[in-house]
Amino acid sequence: MNNDSERLERILSCCSEGFFELALNSNAFWCSPNLAAVLGLERTQTPGSIDDLFQAFDLRHADELSHTKISLLEGSQKFGLKRFRLKGDGTSKGEVEFRFLKNLEAQVVSGSVQRIEPGKTSSSAFDQREEILHAILDTTTAVIFAKDRQGRYLFMNQRFRELFRIEGEYLGKDDYQIFPVEAAEKFQRVDRMVLEGGEKVELLEQAPQDDGLHTYISAKMPLFDADGSIYAIAGIATDITSEQKAKEELVRIAELKSQFLANMSHEIRTPMHGVLVTAELLSSSELNDYQQGLVSTITESAESLLRIINGIFDFSKIEANKIVLSQGVVSLRALISGVEKVHGPLARKKNIEFIVDIGGDLADQYFTDGNRIVQILHNLAGNAVKFTEAGGQVTLAVRRVRSQGPEDLVEFVVNDTGIGVHPDESENIFEAFAQGDATVTRAFSGTGLGLTISARLVELMRGSIRLIEKQEEGARFEVVLPLLRFVSQGEFSGQNVSNQSEELPELRPLSVLFVEDNPINRRTLSLLLQKFGHTVECAKNGAEAVSLFKAGRYDIVLMDIQMPVMDGIEASRIIRTLEGGKAIPIIALTASAMAGDRERLMSSSINDYLAKPFGKRDLLELLVRWTS
To answer: Which of 266, 271, 276, 277 minimizes the C-alpha distance to 525?
Structure first.
């Protein structure tokens, strides 16, 4: 027997390959006598354990060694092949090929170590590839790591170690030794998802750092061995904290901007309402022609300023994606007639011919947002009249292009013989604040938002808008909208802008509780209501309104919203609790006109909403609707 052992040792000593065997249960280690020579060691340095064997390898890439060692001792991987450098006195003694084969039933690992002779392999190319890989991993700004099935780190790149202040040996450590318990538990929970599902998992994770919690977008994926078993988890994570903070800051700024615009809307519309109502009252009094002309100038100037304000607010809502279409049944013929009533007189004042051409094949009614169509046409027709000289012509035409199912494709055309648009400027004509050259801006003024708003509204309505360039012959704007035909002949409600007669609606005398903190608006609106035969009691805040409501009987309450002491929403809520059997209509008269205001008010104790400034027709029609 001894002779057989000696013979085996003599045979093995002649081999260029060293062998070893490890019992997994007892860690008992055996190696061939030539293993020391293969490793470049003295015979007295022959490895006596698996740890001794791994000590012979260069530790410049200790993560590879650790991964291999763990796979050999604990993993389910049955076969492994690696290249390792040998340790030397400052220089490498060469390379070896390390193989192992695991017998899980016998709990034995058998392996070999073979010297790779210089010049006989492509070891230099292998070295270069390895160096490139490690350079990439250690210079990327992403966090890259690998763990075994037990959650112990096999690899972490330099970025990982820098961010989490990891110094010294990290191999074999788990998350609980690096991170706080709460964070470690979250990481381990995701690791289990990867191991159990066998698929990549992407998610947002937070990890504590010196300056607080950082947010990472992470991807973790399983690594499979030759048998298809998961032996490790690899992960990559990118710090998006700064991007997230920037996004949160943008949201915060947008909210501040929205609040600022809401406040500006209230502060501007409130006095504007006073101006317009006062002008309306003055206009209906006994005035000579000169005085009537002054009142008309006041009204036109106030309405012009209001259009500019509305344009700015609309643009802000479009920027914030807060424009919502309000569908209703409309008559296009009535819409076009309404647009002509506004711009026809303005054109005739400038000695411009204003032509309306309505196709005979239009449906009687469509279900769409009539107010937005009117807004688009006002912008286009207003520009056409503005940029056309005396003796010119403006045409507003509408026709059905074709039918497609229950919808008609309807084309609106605004054509003028004005100054036109230069080809260099036509590309940007629908951009915000674009007005062509500075000469045009000085000559015609305006915010430059009308076409931008029109283009965004057309897009929201699933349509198209384009400019036909005719610099020497004026401009032609074409808008095509898909409009749903409305076939019912019964009564309907909604935004029908049709058939508004010049006569104001008739209304029985009402007892009105009017709540408004602005003294000018209290006085002017009270005078307007009294002129039409109504009795008005005024309160300057919500608390006064509640007191008056307790003591009086009213047919309707007109309620401002932003007031000192008690706002309109709280006052309305209290009034609802004081009512007997009959619910009194409460109408919000507010200068706030931002997106979401109507929905917010209608979800409270308020029945309806009228945005300041409003005309007497708007107010009287609303009174008829709620008190008839």
So the answer is: 277
Class of the CATH domain delimited by 2-126? alpha beta
Residue 352 has pLDDT above 90, yes or no: yes
Q: Which residue has the tokens 């590839």?
A: 129
User: 437 exposed, middle or buried (CB, 10 Å; 0-12, 13-18, 19+)?
Assistant: exposed
Please tell me if the domain spanning 248-297+506-628 has the same topology as the one spanning 328-485: no
Tokens of 211: 């300056």
Instruction: List % helix, strand, coil for the chain (3-state, nearest 5).
Output: 45, 25, 30
The structure's pTM equals 0.47
Distance separating alpha carbons of residues 228 and 605, to the nearest angstrom: 65
pLDDT band of 4, cuts 50, 70, 90: low
Kindly state the tokens that stand for 455: 């283009």
Question: Is the Cα dihedral 191, 192, 193, 195 positive or negative?
Answer: positive
Q: Give the angle 57-126-139 at the CA atoms, nearest 5°.
A: 85
Tokens of 347: 């054109």
**pLDDT of 441:** 46
Chain CA centroid to CA 220, Å: 27
DSSP line for 122-156: -HHHHHHHHHHHHHHHHHSSSEEEEEETTS-EEEE
What pLDDT does 203 receive? 84
Residues listed for the chain:
628
Of the two residues 582 and 488, the one the predictor is more confident about is: 582
Question: How are beta strands 393-404 and 353-358 bridged, if at all?
Answer: parallel
Q: Which CATH superfamily is 140-239 part of?
A: PAS domain (3.30.450.20)
Averaged pLDDT, 168-172: 75
Q: Between 3.30.565.10, 3.20.20.70, 3.20.20.30, 3.30.1360.70, what CATH number should domain 328-485 receive?
A: 3.30.565.10
- With a CB cutoff of 8 Å and minimum separation 6, the contacts of 101 are 78, 79, 109, 110, 111
Residue 74 in tokens? 């604990």
Q: Distances in Å between the alpha carbon of 622 and those of 277, 385, 530, 625?
A: 16, 33, 16, 5
Write down the pLDDT at residue 410: 94
Residue 355 · residue 393 · CB < 8 Å: yes
